[in-house]
Amino acid sequence: MPNIDGMNLAAYVKRYLPEVLIIFITSHLKYAVDAFELSIFRYIPKNSIGSRLPQALKDAINMIKMQADEFFAIETPTRVKKIPYHKILYIQREGKNSVITLLDNSVTKVRKSLTQVFKEFRSDDFVYVDRGDIVNLAHIMGIKDGIVELKNGIRLPASQAKLEQIKTKLSDFWSEQI
After folding, report:
1. Which residue in 84, 161, 164 sits closest to 130, CA to CA?
2. Residue 114 to residue 61: CA distance in whole angstroms
3. Choosing a second label site near 23 at 20 to 30 A (CA), which of 35, 56, 154, 162?
4. Which residues pair with 99 in a beta bridge?
């Protein structure tokens, strides 16, 4: 591409369409780690495009269908709200409420314990990082020195007792995304 490289184009697109699924097809494998940081859906070497692209497209279609179907429902006497799982960054306990923080940094409170909310999720893509925080695995960029780092720069402390479980679930989740 003459005026912009793929990484900068992907970063630009992600800024305006954070949920877009991007598939890189390239002969420059050295940028795969950088692509991961941009939450690129697939990274396909040009020499294996014939064997890998059809599966990547099928997986993308399945991911879109899955994201459209998975949500957390809040039903109270005064409101009904549907929150897609993929938009949830993390959930924190605040007294008798659970506070759900979304990708756009908006928050929604629900008068339920964190345990109740976790039980209602029909997804294995969430993990307790300590007694008061549940995080969406899809938004974790890494864990360093007991701190869970999210895509948007938020850093949450992980309890020492939960670290191995978090790492295992995260590793399993990441390997499913490849």
Report:
1. 161
2. 32
3. 154
4. 92, 109
Q: Supply the pTM of this predicted model.
A: 0.63
Report the greatest alpha carbon distance in the chain. Answer: 57
The CA distance from 62 to 109, in Å, is 30
- Residue-wise pLDDT for 14-42, tens only, equals 888 877 899 988 887 776 677 767 778 88
Q: Which residues contact 123 (CB under 8 A, 6 or more apart)?
A: 70, 85
Q: What is the 3-state secondary structure (H, E, C) of the chain?
A: CCCCCHHHHHHHHHHHCCCCCCEEEECCHHHHHHHHHCCCCEEEEHHHHHHHHHHHHHHHHHHHHHHHHCEEEEECCCCEEEEEHHHEEEEEEECCEEEEEECCCCEEEECCCHHHHHHHCCCCCEEEEECCEEEEHHHEEEEECCEEEECCCCEEECCHHHHHHHHHHHHHHHHHHC
How far apart CA 42 and CA 21 sit, in angstroms, is: 8
The token pair that represents 1 in the structure block: 């591409």
Low-confidence ranges of the chain (pLDDT < 50): 178
Q: In what order do the strands lie in the sheet with 147-150?
A: 140-144, 147-150, 155-157
Retrieve residue 68's tokens: 């459209």
